[in-house]
């Protein structure tokens, strides 16, 4: 199965524009030392589609999951290696966020699967009247996962 798909790439800068690249998100890589539990969480609880079932890749197990506008590249730590982040806990991904229609439906699914809400539901005090309600859970590998309703009109 091909893990690459057509993702719209924004138009390149014109002749009078300079500076930044124009690109679109392809994937987010999440490393886990509890691959099976994390795979279950992202496919069965979060409901991400399986683009490619788990497969061996060098010294890891890897799977591709469809998160809508980007892919999740879920992979195990190298077999026999420690999962500690080489740059320390202050670096890397802070959280992964998923847009859902209604948080009450998310809460019901989390309850069915015995997954505790770490924070929320709450509306962050951003000062933006469109700020949606959000909540957080912790994925099995420790990634903070945010579920958020669409922005308010």
CATH superfamily: 2,3-Dihydroxybiphenyl 1,2-Dioxygenase, domain 1
Radius of gyration from the CA trace? 18 Å
**How many separate helices?**
2
Total domain modules: 1
CATH structural class: Alpha Beta
Cα(first) to Cα(last) distance is 39 Å
Which shape, going by the Cα principal axes? globular
**Percent of residues in beta strands?**
25-35%
Secondary structure category: alpha/beta
Strands of the largest sheet, in order across it? Answer: 1-4-3-2
Stretches with pLDDT under 50, minimum 5 residues: 1-10, 12-16
* Average pLDDT reading: 81
Q: Helix share of residues?
A: 10-25%
Order of helices and strands: EHEEEEHEEE
Question: What does this 3D model show about the protein?
Answer:
It is a single chain. With 153 residues, the protein is α/β, with parallel strands linked by helices. The chain contains 2 helices and 8 strands, in the order βαββββαβββ. The termini are far apart. The longest helix has 11 residues. The N terminus is likely disordered.
Which short descriptors sum up this protein?
globular; alpha/beta; 4-stranded mixed beta sheet; 31% strand; 14% helix; 2,3-Dihydroxybiphenyl 1,2-Dioxygenase, domain 1; 2 helices; 153 residues
What's the structural blueprint in terms of helices and strands?
Blueprint: E1 27-32, H1 35-45, E2 49-57, E3 60-66, E4 71-76, E5 95-99, H2 103-112, E6 119-122, E7 134-138, E8 144-148
Parallel strand pairs: 1-4, 5-8
Antiparallel strand pairs: 2-3, 3-4, 6-7, 7-8
Brief account:
The chain is of the alpha/beta class and 153 residues long.
């Amino acid at each position: 199965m091909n893990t690459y798909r057509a993702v719209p790439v924004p138009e390149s800068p014109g002749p009078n524009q300079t500076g930044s690249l124009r690109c679109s998100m392809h994937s987010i890589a999440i490393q886990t030392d509890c691959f099976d539990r994390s795979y279950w969480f992202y496919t069965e609880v979060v409901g991400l589609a399986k683009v490619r079932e788990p497969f061996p890749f060098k010294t890891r197990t890897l799977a591709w999951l469809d998160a809508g506008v980007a892919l999740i590249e879920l992979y195990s730590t190298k077999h026999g290696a420690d999962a500690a982040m080489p740059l320390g806990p202050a670096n890397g991904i802070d959280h992964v966020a998923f847009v859902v229609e209604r948080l009450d439906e998310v809460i019901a699914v989390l309850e069915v699967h015995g997954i505790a809400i770490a924070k929320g539901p709450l509306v962050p005090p951003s000062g933006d009247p469109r700020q949606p309600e959000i909540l957080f859970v912790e994925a099995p590998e420790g990634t903070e996962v945010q579920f958020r309703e669409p922005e308010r009109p």
